[in-house]
Design goal:
Layout (H helix, E strand, L loop, with lengths): L1 E5 L6 E5 L5 E3 L14 H9 L7 E2 L5 E2 L8 E5 L3 H6 L9 E4 L5 E2 L5 E3 L6 E2 L2 E7 L15 E8 L2 E2 H6 L5 H4 L5 E2 L4 E3 L10 E6 L2 E7 L7 H8 L10 E3 L22 E6 L3 E9 L4
Parallel strand pairs: 6-18, 8-14, 9-20
Antiparallel strand pairs: 1-2, 1-5, 1-15, 2-3, 3-4, 6-7, 10-13, 11-12, 11-18, 12-15, 16-17, 16-19, 19-20
């Protein structure tokens, strides 16, 4: 099942995409898609019903991020060897964990807004993992059973803020709109192997990233098990799992960074496509 939320910003309703590609409205039977609704029993209940029981919605309707009330947005750094090499950073011996502000979350087609003073805003296509059941000290062999589904994430990053302004990475990772999610959340029953997902990203029609989760240093199962040793992962939490090579910072011979007016497309054959414009923050 492809879980979605649709409608005007701040007034989204829950829905799903059926097997024919039709957008269906679930607001008559579900308040919203949040952590409490992402457990196996609730997902199975919705999936058992005939899709045409639910009203169809105009396909041109705006898509919001596919879940709400996210409590933790956890990110993994340097999880692809080729990206660590282009960043001129050592291959990590353990997963690198940091957090993105939940206020950075945005819809899959909403504008990306460059923060005031930005000089080096960059892109990172990633596989996002959404937790479905509480995970604490999870064994790696059981980790994937705690996953509700998978989605596209663009882990946008202001590199000067992240690397040149002192302190942790968080200040360059948590800017408003720096976490587009979606267009939908593909439930885990439809993704047989999260280590076999293609990921790509284009800026102004130029393919900048073209990777696969097969090249992760640490697998999705390893990341969930490892992270659950340091914090409880709760239903609705998002773990974004690192990016392959091709970020702007690593472009040779001269780094390339985002500017107002750029167009970004992010995609996967299994997870859908995001598409949005970049604009400057309001001066006020």
């Amino acid at each position: 099942m492809k879980i979605v939320r649709f409608g005007d910003a701040g007034r989204e309703r829950p829905g799903f995409i059926d097997s024919s590609g039709t957008l269906r409205d679930l607001s008559g039977v579900l308040d919203d898609w949040s952590g409490a609704q992402l457990g196996p029993s609730e997902l199975e209940r919705i999936a058992r019903e005939a899709p045409d029981r639910y009203p169809a919605v105009d396909s041109g309707t705006r898509m919001g991020m596919p879940l709400t009330a996210v409590r933790k947005f956890i990110a993994i750094g340097l999880n692809y060897k080729d990206h660590a090499e282009e960043a001129k950073l050592p291959i990590p011996s353990e997963p690198v964990i940091f957090c993105k502000a939940t206020s950075s979350l945005s819809g899959p087609n909403d504008d990306v807004i460059l923060p005031r003073g930005s000089k080096k805003s960059d892109w990172e296509v990633e596989l996002g993992v959404v937790i479905g059941t509480t995970s604490r000290y999870v064994e790696e062999s059981q980790a994937l059973s705690h996953v509700a589904g998978y989605c596209l994430v663009n882990d946008l990053s202001e590199r000067e803020f992240q690397l040149e302004r002192g302190g942790t990475w968080d200040k360059g990772k948590g800017c408003d709109t720096f976490g587009p999610i979606g267009p939908w959340l593909v439930t885990s029953d439809e993704i047989k192997d999260p280590q076999d997902i293609d990921l790509w990203l284009e800026v102004n029609g130029i393919r900048r990233q073209d990777g696969t989760t097969r090249n992760m240093i640490f697998s999705v199962a390893k990341l969930i098990a490892y992270t659950s040793c340091f914090m409880t992962l709760e239903p609705g939490d998002i773990v974004t799992t690192g990016t392959p090579k091709g970020v702007g910072m690593g472009t040779k011979p001269t780094p390339v960074f985002l500017k107002a007016g750029d167009r970004i497309r992010v995609g996967s054959s299994k997870l859908g496509i995001q598409e949005y414009s970049v604009r400057a923050a309001s001066p006020e």
